[in-house]
Each structure stands twice: as structure tokens, then as C-alpha cells.
Design a protein that fits this description.
Elements (H helix, E strand, L loop, with lengths): L1 E2 L4 H8 L1 E4 L7 E4 L1 H5 L1 H15 L6 E5 L2 H13 L2 E7 L7 E8 L2 E8 L8 E9 L3 H12 L3 E10 L5 H7 L4 E6 L5
Helix pairs in contact: 1-3, 3-4
Amino acid sequence: MTQASTPYSDYIKGVIRTVRDWPQAGINFRDITPLMQNRAAFRKLIDAFVHQYQEQEIDAIAAIDARGFIIGAPLAYELNTSFVPVRKKGKLPFKTLSETYKLEYGEATVELHADAFQAGERILVVDDLIATGGTMLAAAKLIKRVGGEVVECATIIDLPDLGGSDAIQAAGFKIFSVCSFSETE
């Protein structure tokens, strides 16, 4: 896994709010809304991603519904790439491919337009955080199914104690995160 080694990492981590015991006891929710409310922090966040990818060949940003859109759209603009949403089931109006993945309690499904990418296009997958890795892996699998090449899975936050980044790497995908939190932080 790659974590940003810029001064932005500690700054951005310091702006993220931890809400203890939400949505249930024992869960530490990492709230990124302070990053969007603070214009300097939001700019540094997007800059951290731009600096990571500005010299790489990337054809599109595939951003995961919904918080991935927050960073995916400005990043696509800055990198001069296309923006493709990976949506929750039932939200896309055209022919789609879907991938179901396991949650702690049940399953969820993400979808991608069948014509989202051309074969061989280089795609950066973006979301707000990696917890168990299910959503990111499902999105990466969809991209491969339509013929895209996943360059990397990029995220603001990695929660390595939950095993998602290990699962994503075990599936053969590289990861970039701006910062990480242990469960005790």
C-alpha cells in the first residue's frame, strides 16, 4: 500500500472528525464533512490526489457512490480525465453490469454502465475510505469485466485494522490512501 508522504497527510487526518459509537456502540465513524467545510483542507485533499496521479496515464476516474463522488469529480477535472460513477443498485438508467458483495450484515450491490469504458482504458477507482474492502473490490471487478485496467484504488482514509486494504491487495490491486486510522485512534 502507498500512503501519501506529503505534509498534507497529517493535516488532513487532523481535520477528519471521529464520532465514537456511531452508528452503533463500538464503531468509530470517520467523518469527512469537516474536510469539505474547510476550503483549505479540501484543496489540500484534492492536491494530495493530484500530486499522486498527475504524471500517470489515467483515462477515467471511477468514483464510488456517494462519497467517492466528492473527490472523484474535482480530481477528474484536475487530471483532465472522464468521470464515471459506480452507483448503488437501481440508480443508473441504462444497461448495467452489477457486482454483489458481502456486508457485515447482508449484501449490497454496485452497478456500472455496460459502456462506461473501452477495453484497455486505465481507470483510477476512488472512494472516501477502505474498511472491509467490499465496495472497492466490487467496483474494481466491474471495471475489469467491462475491459478496463484498474491503475489503483485511491481513498482518503484506510482503516487497516478492518482488513480491507489487505483484501484489495490480495486481489491484485494497488492502493493509495492519504491517511489511515487504527481502531484505537
